[in-house]
Design the sequence.
């Protein structure tokens, strides 16, 4: 691989138990941001005709808990490399009996239950309200679903992920409450990661790998870290195949709503762009 100037068009955030998937020759780079250091060095590789940037959101040695991830630095680093599309796989719990461990869910909505996280790039003076009504890119969602099916993976085409602060897991009462709302998935990192991508006009798709049933499903035992990682590890090959399938056939997302969201989000016009 010959990359004279660090750049990439596709970004991938790794989650629990998933720290490297890129084939062939790779190159690690460090990226400075106005928001501090990203979670780790970024690995660059070529997949088909795409240059891919991979960043483990918890760090390679899983030293960063979900409530301490520097989400703004991670997203800014991707944007500064030229990334236009991000795939965000992660380990998640199920809130519904029909969504089983080993299944994939391509979420179309999130519910934010986090607190205290830096969750916007726009602190003024230009007031900017970026819509989160449809937080995930429809083009990438369709592509992710098709890629899962092509690889023989059981996939749920829609789903709402409720994002809790962590690092603790939910109580049974909390889990039952979340499930009673009809939400399918529970996770600790989808917010603000997915929303910050949108603020930077990056198309983003989530793939939730279900590792366990959450505590509120009484017929199932409460989750443990060992169980989560065991299921995740068993399905790593499935995830690698889906990701490589997606990247090799990556669609054009220039028409994605995310790619032009700032044109209708600024309260006042005339401010300097984030990236000129």
Sequence:
């Amino acid at each position: 691989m010959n990359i004279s100037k660090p750049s990439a068009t596709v970004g991938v955030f790794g989650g629990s138990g998933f720290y490297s998937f890129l084939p062939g020759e790779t190159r690690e780079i460090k990226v400075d941001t106005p928001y501090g250091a990203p979670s780790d060095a970024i690995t660059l590789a070529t997949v088909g005709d795409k240059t891919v940037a991979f960043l483990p959101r918890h760090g390679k040695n899983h030293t960063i808990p979900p409530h301490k991830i520097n989400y703004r630095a991670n997203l800014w680093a991707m944007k500064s490399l030229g990334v236009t599309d991000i795939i965000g796989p992660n380990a998640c719990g199920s809130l519904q009996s029909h969504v089983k461990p080993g299944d994939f869910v391509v979420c179309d909505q999130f519910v934010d239950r986090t607190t205290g996280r830096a969750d916007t790039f726009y602190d003024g003076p230009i007031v900017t309200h970026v819509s989160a009504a449809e937080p995930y890119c429809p083009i990438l969602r369709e592509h992710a679903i098709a890629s899962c099916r092509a690889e023989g993976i059981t996939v749920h085409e829609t789903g709402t992920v409720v994002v809790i602060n962590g690092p603790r897991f939910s109580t049974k009462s909390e889990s039952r409450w979340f499930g009673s709302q009809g939400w399918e998935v529970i996770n600790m990192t989808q917010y603000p990661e997915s929303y910050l991508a949108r603020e930077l006009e990056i198309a983003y798709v989530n793939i939730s790998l279900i590792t366990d049933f959450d505590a509120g499903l009484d017929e199932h035992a409460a989750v443990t870290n060992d169980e989560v990682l065991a299921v995740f590890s068993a399905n790593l090959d499935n995830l690698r195949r889906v990701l490589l399938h997606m990247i090799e056939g990556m669609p054009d997302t220039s028409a994605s709503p995310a790619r032009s969201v700032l044109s209708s989000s600024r309260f006042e016009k005339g401010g300097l762009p984030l990236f000129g």
Remarks:
- The helical segments are 71-80, 138-150, 172-180, 190-199, 225-234, 236-248.
- The mean pLDDT is 90.
- The longest strand covers residues 203-213.
